[in-house]
Design goal:
Layout (H helix, E strand, L loop, with lengths): L8 E3 L1 H9 L3 E4 L5 E4 L7 E4 L2 H22 L9 E3 L12
Parallel strand pairs: 1-5
Antiparallel strand pairs: 2-3, 3-4
Length: 96
């Protein structure tokens, strides 16, 4: 019997944003604007007047999603075997 262990790669925020963007779903609205949904990050949806603006807004939305999750201690999902590398400012308590 083999023990398979999945190794996760730690990535900086810039790489994590690029990974999330690789899963972005763009759709053009009736008024010509664009909506972008980022499925790996639940609720991460934004829009722009043009597709390029929607891309910029998606990058901003992903960063905001991650920062909000960190702020409130919510889990940040892995994307394509990668997890966000960050340093927590929460003090580590010593065992009594």
């Amino acid at each position: 019997m083999t023990n398979s262990v999945t190794t996760m790669k730690l990535v900086p925020l810039s790489k994590y944003i690029q990974l999330a963007l690789s899963h972005a779903v763009y759709s053009q609205n009736e008024d010509g604007s664009w909506t972008v949904e980022v499925p790996p990050l639940p609720g991460c949806v934004t829009w722009g007047e043009t597709r390029d603006e929607a891309l910029e807004m998606a990058m901003d939305a992903i960063e905001g999603w991650v920062l909000t999750a960190l702020r409130f201690g919510d889990p940040i999902p892995s994307i394509d075997g990668c997890i966000l590398h960050y340093v927590s400012d929460t003090p580590i308590s010593k065992a009594a």
